[in-house]
Structures are given as C-alpha cells and as structure tokens.
Fold these 2 entries.
Entry 1:
Amino acid sequence: MQFIDLTAQQQRIRVKIEANIQAVLSHGQYIMGPEIQELEERLSSYVSVKHAIACSSGTDALLLALMAYGVGQGDVIFTTPFTFIATAEVISLLGAIPIFVDIDPKTFNIDPESLDQAITALKSNDPGLHPLPSTMSNELSALNPRGIISVDLFGVPADYDRINTIAKKHGLFVIQDAAQSFGAEYKTKKACSLASIGCTSFFPAKPLGCYGDGGMCFTDNDDLTDTMRSLRNHGGGNHKYDNVRIGINGRMDTLQAAILLAKFDIFPEEIELRNQVASKYNKLVSVFSPELSAPQVPPGLLSVWAQYSILAKDEEHRSAIQDNLKKKEIPTAIYYPKPLHLQDAFTYLGYKEGDFPVSESASHRIVSLPMHPYLKEEQQQEIVELLKLSLIVVK
Ligand SMILES: *Cc1c(COP(=O)(O)O)cnc(C)c1O
C-alpha cells in the first residue's frame, strides 16, 4: 500500500498530461510560457480572488508575500509552531523574528485567543502573559509587530473570522499558509481567499500537486500583486534588464503549469473523493475509539484532507500503531515529530519545552494514515482493523 498513490491519478489523465507536455516542447517557452498565465487565470477564478502569481514553491510563495510587505530586521511575525519548517523559516530568513503561538487542540490550527495574548504580551513586553523569545527580552520592546502567518494544517482552514478581527485590532496583516488546504472552504469562501495574501504549494504530495516544485500567491490587492510579480523575477521593472528592487528567481516552470492544468480538470472531483475516504475513516474509527479521531473539521468548513491524522494515547501507543501497520507494509507518517520552537534551527530564540503544551503533546501522539482520493474501502478496513489491534497492545 502507498501513503499517497499518485499512480492511480496519473493513469486517469495520462493522455492529457502528455499532450500538455508535448505542447510545451513544441512552443519551447520553458520560462513564463503561456501555460503560466492560463494557470493563474484558472486558479484565481476558482479561488474567487482577483490575482494569482505562480511561483517556484510554497516556500517561495510565503517568502514573496513577506517581501511584498517589506518584512525584515526588527519585525515580528506571529505563527504556529505545529507546522512544516517553511512557515517560520521564511520569517527568519528575512531577519524578522517568529513569535510562536500554540494551537487549538481540536483543529491543530493557531489558537486565536493565544494569538491575541501573544500580541498583547509583546506590546507590553510581558512574558508572563505569553511565552516570548527569552534571548531577546532586552530587544522586545523595540520590535515591530507586523503580521500573522496562519496555517491550515492537514487541509482544515484556520479560524479566519477571529484571526482577521484580531489582526485588524492590532494593525497586522495576515498571510494564509494554505500549502495543505488548496480547495478547502471556510464558510463558502475558498482557501487562499481568506487573508490579505493566500499562499499555496504544488509539491507532488499536496492535494493539488505538480511533478516537481511549484507554488502560488493569491490576493485582491493590485499593488501587492505588482510587487510580487516583480519580486519573483529578480525585482524586475518595465523592461528586461531594468531592476527596481532586490528580488529572487522565484518563477514557476512552464512544464509544471502544463501538468497542473491537466490535474486541475479532475481536482474538484478528487476533493469529493478525499472527503468520502475521510468519512469512511471517521466512521470506522469512531466505532471502536472515538477519542482517536483528529483533527475535527468545524461546522461550515470543508477540509481537503491533505493528511488523515489520528491522535494516539501516548508515544508508546503511537509506536504500536506504526509497528502493526508496518508489518503489513502499510506506511504511516508523523507530521510533525518536533514543534518548531524546539528545533535546533530556532534555539537562537530561546524557547523551551513546556512553552507550547498543546503542540508538544500533539507532536508526541499524532500519526497520519494513508490518504489519497483512490484509497479503497477494503484498504481502509484493513488499516482500521490493525488500529484496533494496537489499542489492545497498550491496554
Ligand atoms: C509544504 C508546505 C510548505 C512549503 O511548500 P513547498 O512547496 O514544499 O516549498 C509550507 N507550509 C506548509 C504548511 C506546508 O505543508
């Protein structure tokens, strides 16, 4: 069994993929070919946002968004420690400081109440209110709170009504890290349309993936769009060797856009299939152990199930689950075994164990099961039977 089966999908649309690749080979515009604009138009209309800016990866999408806001030294960006490294890496890369905020135990997304406390703690330089980077206690009052990067973990949008209200109150921008949630919905609005800039990834394993690296930024703002288009192409101005700002080589390959156009045709149907697979898992798991199911999708939201994760009782139980499945050659994965505030890369901030207990507990207990649109009911039944077995082992 495969954790994510990309072959079944490819078999369905192989002819279209090959035709799209052939078209690129024929016109030869490998950089910024016509497929780039076509993809930007199709996806911006799908998301119902005015502009889409194709780029080289989800990481670069986040980087471009922060750069468009001019984020740099002395700035603070609030984000979650229970995410992929890229979310916070881009903040540090620009010389800004990530301040971490714990997650909601039900959705695993940033907890709005803690977010509000963290902003207040920074503004009043009071680490008693919320854990702050301890190595910077002397500089904290000089730092400038600028924005929030919220993450839609596993495909469930964060609580944007509350996040946007808090951001407005404190004068911060919001960037939606929708790398795992492209196609998801929050109260009829699509992921990538829920903040000032929405960023997604087309890494092969994401819900909509290409055959390499790719990403996209979405926004309704014309000025931010112009800046991001310039930044992705070395800060280019009006003609080819005119450079008006320091940028990056952040373009998407035409070939990846061509592949995405073929895959996007069946994407809405795949979201439905993913939800059917998830409902089946939910039903099978809840019969014997409802406390295993996680995370929950709040009412009014649609998840794209980038991962189907469960929460084991403890680390020992999780190992038993993984071992049992492995014996039958069923792969599992842990997203994420170490929250970001405890990663060596961030020791310079001076966070410590215990700062974000919900994230820490999740990192010890979370485990993701095989999940893709073409997973069969028999396979799910086999997986859940083995889950039951591991429950007995730890009793
Ligand atoms: C995958 C991912 C990214 C980075 O995307 P890449 O395309 O791999 O650079 C960023 N944030 C989150 C939450 C992700 O899951």
Entry 2:
Amino acid sequence: MGPRGFGFLVALLVLGLCALAVSEKPSPCRCSRTSPEKRKNCGFPGITSNQCFDSGCCFNSSVRGVPWCFNPLPVQDAEQCVMEVEARKNCGYPGISPEECASRNCCFSDTIPQVPWCFFPLSVQDCHY
Ligand SMILES: *[C@@H]1O[C@H](CO)[C@@H](O)[C@H](O)[C@H]1NC(C)=O
C-alpha cells in the first residue's frame, strides 16, 4: 500500500472517531414538542445551535428566560409517538398489551408508571427545529 492508501485509511479513521464523538441531532418532534417551561438545560451559556445539536440536544432561542439548549424528549418507536407524557391521550386501558395497542393503531410505551401506556399518535407535520 502506497502513502496515498495510508492517508486514506487515516482519514477514514479520523472521520470514524469524529462520528463517535458527535451525537446525533435529535428528531424534530423530540425538540419542538418540549414545552419551554419544561426544558432541562443541556448546554452552557453562549452555546451555538450547531454545538448544541452536535451534542445531541435541541436548540431554540425564541423564548427568553428559559434554556435555549435543552434535552430532547425520549425516543419512541415512531416519530408520531414522541410527545410529553402530559400530552398522552389514552387509547387503551391499564395493563393493555403492546399487541392490542398496536391493533388500535396507537403508540405503546410502558417505561413510565401511572400514565397511559397506550396513547394516540400525533401528526408530525408541526414538528420542526
Ligand atoms: C421555538 O419554541 C417556541 C415555543 O415552543 C415555538 O413556538 C417556536 O415555533 C420554536 N421555534 C423554532 C424555530 O423551533
């Protein structure tokens, strides 16, 4: 392998390492469905939107007095199932199975106790950064 091939390998390695260090930008709904008063700070004063997104957080500077770089909502199986827990509209009953919930075309997530586990999906049209 000549020096060119070696340089190519080094470049690949560096790119790979960068990809590992940089988190993925959260999906639009994970950001825009977080109400401003519920935001949990994820950055430092003066962080840019790119730095914030690169660290896997959400950026929105349109509301004063709340964190601009904040934690995204948890990932769900589908983007239309991403929402604050308070926004869940019950689509099932206590103890419903994931299969029964899916047969109702609803979202299932049982990670939080005392809230609906089967809930109606929301349109993703209004999700944006
Ligand atoms: C920023 O957040 C506010 C309040 O949630 C929202 O109304 C606005 O559309 C958002 N702006 C962007 C660009 O996401």
